Amino acid sequence: MKKMAFDNFEEYMDPVLYDIEHDGYQNDIPFLQKWAAKVEGTIIDIACGTGRAAIPLARKGYRLMGVDAHLGMLNEAKRKASREGLHIEWAEQDCSALNVPITSPLVYSVGNSFQHFLTNEAQDGLLTSVNRHLKTGGIFIFDTRFPSAEELLQPSTEEYWRSYTDPGKKLKVDVYTISRYEALAQVQHYTTIRRYRNEAGELVDEKRTNISL
After folding, report:
1. Other CB atoms within 10 A of residue 137 CB
2. Which of 18, 39, 119, 160 has the most CB atoms within 10 Å of its CB?
3. Residue of 140, 126, 160, 147 lying closest to 213 (CA atoms)
4. More confident residue, 167 or 100
5. Hey, how many other C-beta atoms are within 10 angstroms of the C-beta on 101?
6. Integer Cα distance of 65 and 42 in angstroms
7. 89, 64 in Cβ contact below 8 A?
8. pTM
9. pLDDT tens-place string over residues 116-158
10. Alpha-carbon distance values, 159 to 62, 147, 155, 174 (Å)
């Protein structure tokens, strides 16, 4: 199967860093658990990343298959699940051309993953893939954000996002973003800037990554 191009994956090249910045969000898990309790069979997690949603559901005893196009994210998901003794099936695939040997009563794609399908063709491919892998009467759940006009049309200047301590490097990380909206294509281009500071507050490193949504 043809794999998704890696030209929009800079934000995911460090899965451990991704978890530090995003794994704390769990607000959608109770909602998914409510629907998981209504079905029998393997649940498919589309664009599962490092297992943020799949692993909590597996802890509750549900059968999961996690699918993602990024092998590094999948490997981190496998490591985390294995550490807890959880059995989850994992598949490295482009979710807009999904081809796994099961159908499911429940397919979901959360964490705003839908934003990664940038064109009508990619979105149609994703929805067709989901339809092909849903059992009759099955449920598809996805989330996506609805940015305000102010957010989309803001000046392309640095905006402070958050700070945290990198547990590996023991450095404080200040995170900023720059956003540029391409209105005709309806695509928002983000640059994320991470500035690493030592205990004295001195800047010792800076990294930039780009993503389009």
Report:
1. 7
2. 18
3. 147
4. 100
5. 7
6. 7
7. yes
8. 0.90
9. 999 999 999 999 999 999 999 999 999 988 888 888 888 889 9
10. 40, 16, 10, 11
